[in-house]
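pls read this stuff:
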Amino acid sequence: MPKKNNIRKPKKRNEKRETAQLFDLTLKCILKEASHPAVVHLINSIHKKSYPLQTTSVKFEPTEHIKKILKSGKLQKIVSDIVVTLSGQGFKDTYLIEAQIKDDAGMVLRIFNYSVQIAVAGKTISDDGSCMEIDMPAPTLLYFEESKTKDIVSIKMKFPDGESVLYNVPTLKILEHSVSELEGMALLLPFFVLKIRKELKKRNTDSKKRKRLSKELDGYVADIVRSLKESKKNNYINEEDLALLLNKLYHMSSELYGKYEEFVEVDMNLKKWAKSGVREAIDKAVGRAVNKARKESRAEGQAELLALWESGVSLAEAKKIFSFS
């Protein structure tokens, strides 16, 4: 009797899930690593607000909540994407950002559930216990790619007394805007690199078409880099933000298009821009550290170290010598 083959077959890649995770993780990384003024400017642009960039406090809230299912009594974990609270003199507002790749009619209900859990966590109860108050976060449904979803999706809640309330969730579709239109939302600009993704994935896409798409992508990348630099010039983002965004733009493009030989030139250009952004950020940081050392340091030999840096010591060596953030 022949022996059974116990070799396990490799699991099939769930490309859609991996792609969704790439976009989700990139968005979370950008928002949580970006400077607070850059995050505030993004919220201002999405929600048409005017929070002061430099003095507004930014706090990322927990995104995991436990919900009890009434019928079964079982506990269910609910995980939202991004929850951020902006606070300052006279205000404290919470925002919920959920991101999607494709249309999903049930997304508005999930956002409502997330919002309720977030609001309940910060509930207040009147002194006599007769009234509980919860503050619902302001939601946004973000689409990375083209979407047929309306600009506002809603839940109509009807009550026994005949009253009804609309719960509205505005949507933002990144690729329905031009690069210049997204300049006010600089932290989202790297996702414009997705502009050619669906076209590239079509079955009839041959080498000739990939070459055309690579040139198209190269033009988009040049526009993105130009807009990011303009955003820095306008103080929407700083040097570190620019380096972060160029880096994420490069890695996302490489992940999506790096396996195609027709995209080698785009990849090289992006790598060059990413490195230049990091170098500029280091230059600025080292310069700030040197100036700080001039003003504050009383350690013996500090003058010699400063002279060493000014004489042309490499950035890597300067980074070891001087402490900066």
Notes: The first helix runs from residue 15 to 33. Confidence is low (pLDDT under 50) at residues 7-12, 75-79. The first strand starts at residue 57 and ends at 60. DSSP finds nine helices and ten strands in the chain.
